[in-house]
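User: Before I run my own analysis I want an independent prediction to cross-check against. Here's the chain; please return only the structure tokens and, at the end, one sentence I can use as a sanity check.
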Amino acid sequence: MYSVSLSQIAKEFNLKNLTEEIDINNINIETAGVNRPAIQLAGFFEYFDSERIQVIGLVEYSYLSKLTPEFRQETLEKLFQYDMPAVIISRGLTPHPEMMFYAKEKHIPILQTEDTTSEFTSELLKWLKMELAPRTTLHGVLVDVYGEGVLITGESGIGKSEAALELVKRGHRLVADDAVEIKKVSHNSLIGTCPELIRYFIEVRGIGIINVKQMFGVQSVKDSQEIDLIIKLEYWEKGKVYDRLGIKEEYMDILGNKVICHSIPVRPGRNLAIICESAAVNCRQKKMGYNAAQALNDAIMNSAMKG
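Assistant: Structure tokens:
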């Protein structure tokens, strides 16, 4: 389980802490979700997920404003009986006195944002999913090739960094070299980043460490990239049968997500950068509905039937 502190959220989204006496640095958020307690204000607390951040929007605020002071106090008392990590009020609305009273009594911080409820909730959910996503670190190189995230893996010394350097020279962008931190942000998406310590650096055997950003400019690097394709480099084995058509896709499992994987045999004279470019373009074509291998196979089958 991963967590973020409430102070990180406050800093990221420029939130104002209306309960300054409550220390938000030690309040950790572990759930990548938020809740608008509209139905809870009406008295229904079954299935109430109090572990989530509670967001009070204009609808909830207007409902509370129309209640009598006695009923509003009773309603908020029931709500603040639950151990909520924080309550965030949108649109810069001023919390009711009863809300401030119970928040201080129960040590539940109230924060304020000037954003609309839907805008703030959407951005917060997206940020929490990234920060709290399951993650792993793989040995390899991640490059943005024509907008496709290509993860190059293989044994140490096989030529991953050299291939990445050639791709950068050809106008593509380096995301990570040597260690690729991968986060699972959804069942379909894996986002790769580089550890802060080695960001923008690449190791080329015989030369040493190169700062790609300094050498090729800011247009040659990227902080994060969705992983669309894996190129697995392996030493050429004489007699081994390699796929020559590509009709049947191979996949690699990363954090439960399946990513298309091509095993590329390495031998002297093969231009790995061009192979990676071609694989990236081919991957994009398949997303757009065109499969070259399948098209050739269909043409051969049609020709055989006509013959």
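Sanity check: The chain has a mean pLDDT of 92.
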